[in-house]
Amino acid sequence: MTIAVTGATGQLGRIVIEKLKAKVDPTSIVALARSPEKAAELGVETRAFDYDQPDQLVPALQGVDTLLLISASEIGKRVPQHQAVIDAAKAAGVGHVVYTSVLHADASELSLAGEHRETEAALAASGLDVTLLRNGWYTENYGASIPSALEHGAFVGSAGDGRIASATRDDYAEAAVTVLTGDGHKGKTYELAGDSAYTLAEFAAELSAQTGKEVPYVDMPEEEYAKVLTGAGFPEPMAAAFAGFDTAAKNGALYDNGGQLSSLIGRPTTPLKDAIAGLL
């Protein structure tokens, strides 16, 4: 069975490839990337795969049995890009598509959830065998905020007391590999999140404990937080989006206690303490 992974040079894709290599014959793995030369170091077959070049996609998927479609990184362009991949998968005879969606995509108020909902609908309409991995928040998403927090003595956000059940990319990658290499997953939707949830105040407290530096959490209104992010160098649309993610978290969008992720990977998800240690 040939397994292909889109976005193979991305942060999640690289981990998936490495974990696949430890579980199946590396000759059965195909790394799909916009710049295949960057994927050469992965030690598997590489093929050019640019979402914006539909004519390139069908040839790249020839002979592929199972495809991991890692959601594209360009927010606002995902729906047509994903549709192009779905159409190519059908044309190439791919048997099973595994898609990385977002936690509770059908009901989530996260601004990026709409594109995932549309992609899920397109997959449902395609007639392909599909598995949905509705990934929750990556703990690493907060990594970029740590240097500034340590420098200025405050971890800022607008998530209030919202509880965040995040997990690491390693956890989510392991779940993807379990589904890609196992049986009984076709037609299933998995809501994936960490075993334990925390508030950003608790995140800041753990950061303080590990660094020996007092870094309190400072909560602020969404618009004010967006201005802080803009001042830190984020483009305005990205700053607004990230501030909005926090507000959604305040309302429960990043929380789940179903335990499906740890059940899939057969171990507890990475504790916050260990994740922060890794980030540091």
Annotate the secondary structure layout.
Elements: E1 3-5, H1 11-21, E2 29-33, H2 36-39, E3 45-48, H3 54-60, E4 66-69, H4 78-92, E5 96-102, H5 113-126, E6 129-135, H6 146-152, E7 155-157, H7 169-181, E8 189-192, H8 200-211, E9 217-219, H9 222-231, H10 236-250, H11 260-265, H12 272-279
Parallel strand pairs: 1-2, 1-4, 2-3, 4-5, 5-6, 6-8, 7-9
Helix pairs in contact: 1-7, 3-4, 4-5, 8-12, 9-10
Strand order of the largest sheet: 3-2-1-4-5-6-8
> What structural class do you assign from the helix and strand content?
alpha/beta
Figure out the total of helices. Answer: 12
**Name given to the CATH architecture of the largest domain:** 3-Layer(aba) Sandwich
What is the strand content?
Answer: 5-15%
Distance between the termini: 39 Å
Q: What is the helical fraction, as a range of percent?
A: 40-55%
Gyration radius from CA atoms, angstroms: 19 Å
What is the molecular shape? Answer: globular
- H/E order of the elements? EHEHEHEHEHEHEHEHEHHHH
Q: How many domains make up the 3D coordinates?
A: 2
Low-confidence stretches: none
What can you tell me about this protein's structure?
By secondary structure, the chain is α/β, with parallel strands linked by helices. The chain folds into 2 domains: 3-135, NAD(P)-binding Rossmann-like Domain (Rossmann fold, 3-Layer(aba) Sandwich), CATH 3.40.50; 138-166 and 193-256 and 268-280, UDP-galactose 4-epimerase, domain 1. It contains 12 helices and 9 strands. Strands 3-2-1-4-5-6-8 form a 7-stranded parallel beta sheet, sandwiched between helices. α5 (113-126) links the parallel β5 and β6. α3 (54-60) runs parallel beside α4 (78-92), α4 packs parallel to α5 (113-126) and α9 runs antiparallel to α10. The longest helix is centred in the first third of the chain and has 15 residues, at 78-92. The protein is globular, with a radius of gyration of 19 Å. The mean pLDDT is 95.
